[in-house]
Amino acid sequence: MYQIAIKKYLEEHGFEALCPKAVLFDMDGILYDSMPNHAIAWQESMARFGIQMSADDAYATEGARGVDTIRLMVRQQQHRDIDEAEAQRMYNVKSQIFHSLPEAPIMPGVLELMGKIRKGGMMCCVVTGSGQLPLIKRILKDFGDFVSEDHITTAYDVKRGKPNPDPYLMGLQKAGNLKPWEAIVVENAPLGIRSGYAAKIFTVAVNTGPLPDEELLLAGANLTFPTMQEFSDHWYNRIIPEL
Length: 243
Description:
By secondary structure, this protein is α/β, with parallel strands linked by helices. It is built from eleven helices and six strands. It has helices spanning about 1-15, 35-45, 55-60, 65-80, 85-100, 110-120, 135-145, 165-175, 190-200, 215-220, 230-240, and strands at about 20-25, 125, 150-155, 185, 200-205, 225. Helix 6 (about 110-120) packs parallel to helix 11 and helix 9 packs parallel to helix 10. The longest helix is centred in the middle third of the chain and has 17 residues, at about 85-100.
C-alpha cells in the first residue's frame, strides 16, 4: 500500500523520488486533541453575532484562517461582506472562549513520532491556520525539543490560508527552501489536506475527526491512518524503508 501510494504521488507530480528532509505538522487535531474545544468555542462565539455554526462546520473549516472562516459564514448567512478587521474582532471572542476551556491534551503518539523523525535526521515543523500567541507559546513549551520558533508557520505568515497552497509553501521556505518532494505533510481535515496537495507535498491524513476516510482521500491525501499513535508505529517498519 505504501509503495503504491508513493509511486502514484511521484507519477502524478512528475517527481523522481520522495526524499523527505522535513515533516510539516498541522496543529489542531494533530499535535493536540483540541477540535472538540474549537467546536464549542466556534458555536458559542458565532451565536453572539447571529451566526449559526455547527460542530461539523467547525471540523469542515478546520485549518483555514479564522478570519477567513468568519467572513465566509457572514457572507453565507447574513449576505454581507465584512473586512478583516471586523472579522478579527469576532475571532477574538472565539479565542477568548477557547482559552477559557480546559487545556487540550497532546495527541498520543506525537512526541514519540517526533523523536523518530529527529533520529532520522529530519526536521519537525508546524503549519497552522491559527495566529494565537498563547498557542504558539504552548507549541514551544510542549515540543521545543523538536520544533523551533522559526519553523512554525501561522496565519500571519500568509495572506491566503488553507486550502490554498501558501501555508505549506511557506512551511517549505522556513524549513530551508525545500522542494515539495523533500517534505511530508501531516493533516487531519479536508482544507489542510487540499493545501498540502496544492503545494504538491506528499500528504498523510490522520483521521482524528468525525469525517470518513473517503472524504480525506478525495481531498488529496496520499495515505490515511486512524490515529497519530498508529502513524508513529508505522513510521520505521512501513514508511521510512520504502521512502
